[in-house]
Amino acid sequence: MRLLVCDTSNSNCSAGIFEDGKEICYELSFETLTHSETFMPLVHRVIEKAKIKHEDLDGYAVTVGPGSFTGIRIGLAAVKGMALASGKKCIAVSSTEALARSCENATMTPKNETLIVPAIDARNNRVFAQAAEDDTLRSLLAEDAYDADAFVAKIEKIPEIIYGARRQIIVVGSGANVMKKAFEKAKSGLNIYYAPGAAIMPKGVALAAFASGKLIDARDLKASYCAVSQAERLKKNG
Fold it and tell me: Cβ(221)–Cβ(92) under 8 Å?
């Protein structure tokens, strides 16, 4: 299966062509311009680099959140348009799963003894995150918007942590620093590594997409915000 994989859910955006899990080409952008300005030109460059047409694809994979509300909407709108125009289907990818799959465990502790926590900064001491087994990526705490302190308390109660089966935690993503402060306040004494510079890579989106393999109609693609927007919060308070 040949996919165009896309991510606009956070500060960077990316696109790549992968076939049966193997990378053909990709491009990652950290430009300060908005995704509405950078994403589609980036996609066109990747398509040209791969020397294919949209008709040659089997489908599109895109991160549907959580993350930047505006970024998610831009990516979904673009992918829906491309998929509908080319008559292809799509695969919805979790941003936190894509983030986890973008990272490699470079520590001495094996994956089967490690808990990976992909965490995206959601501001005000909140993170979009989940906690999963590093080797299987089976979720032990479901993806959601969490208060960092409350999330740490939940992590400490995971049976695998309590009984030492998972004796190491790796926190990756822009929410790592928020999580570090929360773990330090809790004085948990757990063995934790932090990688705040980790970002969603095209390979992470591709791995999540091929692991899922669930192709859906572009019209059925929906955002997974895991929280209400600031505008919605203000509207409720008003």
Answer: yes
The dihedrals phi and psi of 124, each to the nearest 5 degrees, come to 55, 45
Q: Is the distance from CB of 216 to CB of 92 less than 8 angstroms? A: yes
Dist CA 135 CA 2 (whole Å): 25
Per residue in 58-100, pLDDT (tens digit) is 999 999 999 999 999 999 999 999 999 999 999 999 999 999 9
Strands 192-195 and 168-172: parallel
Please name every residue paired with 62 in a beta bridge, in sequence order, or none if there are none: 6, 92
Using alpha carbons only, what angle is made at residue 93 by residues 92 and 96, rounded to the nearest 5 degrees? 150
Whether 99 contacts 173, CB under 8 Å: yes
- String of DSSP letters for 166-208: S-EEEEESTTHHHHHHHHHHHT----EEEETT----HHHHHHH
Q: Are 62 and 92 in contact (CB under 8 A)?
A: yes
What is the SS3 assignment for 84? helix
- The helix (H) or strand (E) run that includes residue 209 is helix 202-212
Beta carbons of 79 and 60 less than 8 angstroms apart = yes
The answer to whether the predicted template modeling score (pTM) of the entire model surpasses 0.85 is yes
Q: Please identify which residue in the block is written with the tokens 């020397």.
A: 51
Closest CA to 54 of 13, 85, 24: 85
Nearest CA to 203 out of 23, 47, 7, 45 is that of 23
d(CA 208, CA 224): 15
